[in-house]
Amino acid sequence: MEDPATPLWRGTVVLRIVTFLFAVVAIVVNHNGYQRPTLAWLVLAAMGVWSVLTVLGYSGDWGRRRWLVAADVVVACGLMSTSTLILSDEQFLRSVPLITTVWACEPAVAAGTLAGPAAGAVSGGLLALFTYLNRGEMSVDVARDAVLLTGAGFLVGMAAKMARISSARLAQALRAEAATAERERLARSIHDGVLQVLARVRKRGMEVGGEAAELAALAGEQEVALRALVAAAPSESTVDGEVDLRPAIQLLATPRTQISTPATQVMLPAQIAVELTSVVREALSNVAEHAGPTARAWVLVEDLGDEVVLSVRDDGPGIPAGRIDAAAEEGRMGIAQSIRGRVASLGGTLELQTGPGEGTEWELRVARPGQGKKKSGNEKGAR
Amino acid sequence: MTEQRVSVMVVDDHPLWRDGVARDLAERGFEVVATAGDAEAAVRIARAVRPNVVLMDLNLGTVSGVDATLRITGELPGTRVLVLSASGEHSDVLEAVKAGASGYLVKSASAEELVEAVRRTAAGDAVFTAGLAGLVLGEYRRMAAAPDDTDSAPQLTERETEVLRLVAKGLTARQIATRLVISHRTVENHVQSTLRKLQLHNRVELARYAIEHGLDQEPEA
């Protein structure tokens, strides 16, 4: 994948070329006053060679590396340091540009583009330090250069960082969209084909009976599992880390377990949704274990706006009065205790309703954090 | 229920399923007067044969079963629609019920459950699964929370909420009657009333929408 900061690299290359031309003009204009004009031409030649090298390097992938950018900073500082040998004292007094002129600002921009605002600012600061060392004294010009160099490095670094972040986000969004589209396509085809046939097989098999009934039961299990899988849309998490509780709960459906939810999203913070789902799973496995293999179970998800209510009911024999205490004494209330503990840690309440022949019903209420502004199960805000 | 045989029409785009259901019903004494494979045909044929019950699948291609339900229940007061869908009990089922369907059954229901559901639908009862009760309950709460139509939106009475919650938790009408110490008939009435209010509100909303958008005018030639 192409670096999202590529336009900034192109800008860096243009800056290098333009500042080199600027340096040529500045040296031509000032060369009569230099104490060592020959050295000035040699340094300009070196700047030319280095410019060609960096332009080539920054134009392709091979040069957009730490080593070239670091070398760029070192070369710029080094060539700048020949200024004391070239410029005359009088020129220093007149604030004639250092031999590298604005050409030396480019490494700060390159560093920012490569590695972000901190690297850009540090490189700019280093170049500013060398400017100061070569000038030998602090002046308004030196201070201004320092601000411009560190500022430019920082800002370009910021731009590069933002470009990379937004590019990554865009890529993620596109992937999610593609996955959703593919999922919908699969769901439609499963719905129109496999599910219809499975339902039919189950129905006919039950009527025929015998061995066919066994096959029908298998088909029925797969039908329910597949339908739950298709119905459970991928949980899109919002920016603030909230997810829809329904898909995860719906996956718990079996031929003996009916899941009822509202038609609209039930948004909850992701970790609460995960915890609630595992509590419901635990309650359902409790049903399978204690209410007998023929017991059926129902799960109801309700969104009351300021709180979410989950009910798990089974039509098993129920727990006769006193059995709970007895069980607790025997230390057999493991599951109930664990469910109670988990609900308590979510700041929720748990009610257990049971009696002989009445089945068992858990009712679990969890307050929605930060409620008051949010609408209950309303998709308007999410769309 | 009268002695007259209940006439049924089966609408499903899947021939295997459609014919299977038609045979099941015929074997058990219902008169299957028509079948249809898409929504347009369903509306057309229903107008001609006026069946007591239409068994409606919701996945019918371009025109959905929801639309067909709206038109059939709107035009034919003597015809009731029972949704029979493989759908994961979601918004499409809720939409169909708001459009006028008097009940809903999953396709995985047994032949006995289907027969019972058709019989009850013909008799004018609402056929509620726990899943549908959850959807209807959620819809009333959504309407109560939506700021724009709190004044006109129907509301559940406390008793109706209680009954719907128990239906959603899988209790049968008889169990609910016992638990609330009311008659079986009263439970049925409460359930039906929750549906009727929702359907009436839906019709009013559709009419209002049509008037606001000029859809009630005859298109000019």
UniProtKB/TrEMBL annotation, chain A:
Coiled coil: none annotated. PANTHER family: NITRATE/NITRITE SENSOR PROTEIN NARX-RELATED, OXYGEN SENSOR HISTIDINE KINASE NREB. It comes from Solihabitans fulvus. It comes from the Bacteria. It holds the Pfam family DUF5931. The chain crosses the membrane at residues 12-33, 39-60, 67-88, 108-130, 142-160. Residues 274-366 form the Histidine kinase/HSP90-like ATPase domain. InterPro entries: DUF5931 (IPR045975), HATPase_C_sf (IPR036890), HATPase_dom (IPR003594), Sensor_HK_TwoCompSys (IPR050482). Keywords: ATP-binding, Kinase, Membrane, Nucleotide-binding, Transferase, Transmembrane, Transmembrane helix, Two-component regulatory system. The keyword Hydrolase does not apply. Residues 6-171 form the DUF5931 domain. This is ATP-binding protein. GO terms for molecular function: ATP binding; kinase activity. Residues 351-383 are annotated as: Disordered. GO terms for biological process: phosphorelay signal transduction system.
Automatic annotation (TrEMBL), chain B:
Keywords: DNA-binding, Phosphoprotein. SMART domains: HTH_LUXR, REC. One of its GO terms (molecular function) is DNA binding. It comes from the Bacteria. Residues 7-122 form the Response regulatory domain. The modification 4-aspartylphosphate is found at residue 57. This is Response regulator transcription factor. The lineage of its organism: Bacteria, Bacillati, Actinomycetota, Actinomycetes, Pseudonocardiales.
